[in-house]
Amino acid sequence: MLILAGLAIAAALVAGALHAVRQTLARLPRSNRDWVFY
Predict the structure, then answer these.
(1) What's the chain's average pLDDT?
(2) pTM for the complete prediction?
């Protein structure tokens, strides 16, 4: 049970981090973020 909870928390943290990174990159000029969104 604790393992599943840990995996869920880790997945949520990773998803949140990716979202934050994408929001930050969205503020950069177009040329700088094109390579991120394959």
Answers:
(1) 82
(2) 0.56
